[in-house]
Amino acid sequence: MSSRGEVYLPSESRRSGSHVPSMDAYRKMHADSLADPEKFWRDVYRQFHWETPYTDFHSYNFDRSQGPVSIKWLEGATTNICYNLLDRNIKLGHGDRIAYY
């Protein structure tokens, strides 16, 4: 949205081919992420190639009396971002498309 409150919508063809094609789809994803965050983020995790899997999906401590505040995700996991952005998409038949804007 612009500073004047105007909304600029992408074309229908751009929306229909996108990962989140509508505000309704966005709202559903957001609701799913709040209702069951572990399932939501495991589903996201599965969309990527991983060189090594995680040993601990997530851990956290918000209680300072138990130690430093910390949040850890996918501890032990390693990936190759170049493979995920380029090589994997070429193998999936998307080599003629823009990989990253």
Please explain how this structure is put together.
- The chain has helices at residues 12-16, 23-35, 37-45, 81-91, and strands at residues 56-61, 70-75.
- It has 101 residues and is an alpha+beta fold.
- A two-stranded antiparallel ribbon has the order 1-2.
- A hairpin with an 8-residue loop joins β1 and β2 (70-75).
- The protein is extended, with a radius of gyration of 18 Å.
- The relative contact order is 0.09.
- The model has no long low-confidence stretch (mean pLDDT 90).
- Pfam families: ACAS_N (PF16177).
- One of its GO terms (biological process) is acetyl-CoA biosynthetic process.
- Residues 1-21 are annotated as: Disordered.
- This is Acetyl-coenzyme A synthetase N-terminal domain-containing protein.
Count of discrete alpha- or pi-helical segments spanning 4 or more residues: 4
- As a percent range, the share of helical residues equals 25-40%
Radius of gyration: 18 Å
The end-to-end span amounts to 20 Å
Question: Segments where pLDDT lies below 50 for 5+ residues?
Answer: none
Mass-distribution shape: extended
Largest sheet: 2 strands, antiparallel
Number of domains as seen in the coordinates: 2
The average pLDDT is 90
Strand adjacency order, main sheet: 1-2
Q: Structural class given helices, strands, pairing?
A: alpha+beta
